[in-house]
């Protein structure tokens, strides 16, 4: 049974592949498939991140990653759900948040306005960085502002890499969970050619692969510190490859007349 009520569509249909198509598996459509599969996916993903964080000793900020898990399971056809914005967005927003805290303390330290200034500057820097690196991911805005009001559960210099670790796990889970029913990352006008079975550009696939391997190495923190250290550098390189390849393309692509 399907009903269209102004801006909302209600679909009472059993879970099947059709219910995961772009036109119905989206905000604005209330369906059994999205309620069950999407809700379960987000909650399981966050549980996995939480368990792994505790076991391997890598602290992350859970509120922004919870929002990421929701988007990756329920709003999968949006550009902000793609691996690049998720991983790079949390990484650069962490840097923006730290910069906002430092600048706020510098300009208004010891005054009643220091926290509002830190919050606004953290969001400003995060928004700038996410746009420059083509990594718009709304949950990462929370990653940026949390350091302005709460102490970090990890050393500041590790904040960006640890958040990229958590974001990579969220992406890994989404790749497995969503591809039971549909292609993820989804095909769209900007990503219509597959590489290694994914609708992603070649540098993005390599960057994602490096982040995945580095996530595994970082998870050896308790048992193999050397591998953990290699993972930290590998994650940084993976994020740089994901986030900067479009600059290289822009440099080598000849100008065209409009």
Automatic annotation (TrEMBL):
HPP transmembrane region domain boundaries: 30-181
Keywords: Membrane, Transmembrane, Transmembrane helix
Transmembrane segments: 35-52, 58-78, 85-103, 162-184, 205-224, 230-252
Matching Pfam families: TM_HPP
Protein name stated in the entry: CBS-domain-containing membrane protein
Species, as recorded: Desulfosporosinus orientis (strain ATCC 19365 / DSM 765 / NCIMB 8382 / VKM B-1628 / Singapore I) (Desulfotomaculum orientis)
């Amino acid at each position: 049974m399907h009903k269209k009520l102004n801006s909302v569509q209600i679909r009472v249909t059993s879970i099947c592949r059709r219910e995961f198509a772009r036109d119905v598996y989206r905000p604005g459509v209330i369906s059994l498939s999205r309620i069950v599969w999407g809700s379960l996916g987000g909650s399981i993903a966050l549980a996995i991140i939480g368990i792994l964080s505790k076991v391997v000793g890598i602290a992350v900020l859970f509120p922004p990653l919870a929002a990421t898990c929701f988007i990756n399971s329920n709003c999968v056809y949006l550009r902000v759900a793609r691996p690049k914005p998720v991983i790079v967005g949390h990484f650069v927003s962490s840097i923006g948040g730290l910069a906002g805290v430092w600048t706020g303390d510098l300009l208004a330290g010891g005054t009643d306005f220091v926290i509002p200034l830190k919050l606004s500057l953290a969001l400003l820097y995060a928004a700038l960085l996410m746009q420059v690196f083509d990594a718009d991911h709304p949950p990462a805005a929370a990653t940026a502002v949390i350091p302005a009001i709460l102490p970090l559960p990890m050393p500041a210099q590790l904040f960006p890499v640890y958040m990229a670790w958590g974001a990579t796990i969220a992406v890994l889970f989404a790749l497995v969970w969503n591809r039971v029913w549909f292609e993820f990352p989804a095909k769209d006008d900007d990503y219509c050619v597959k590489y290694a079975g994914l609708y992603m550009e070649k540098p993005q696939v390599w960057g994602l692969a490096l982040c995945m391997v580095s996530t595994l190495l970082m998870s050896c923190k308790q048992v193999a510190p050397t591998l953990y250290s290699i993972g930290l550098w590998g994650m940084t390189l993976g994020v740089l490859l994901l986030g900067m390849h479009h600059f290289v393309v822009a440099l080598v692509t000849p100008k065209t007349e409009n």
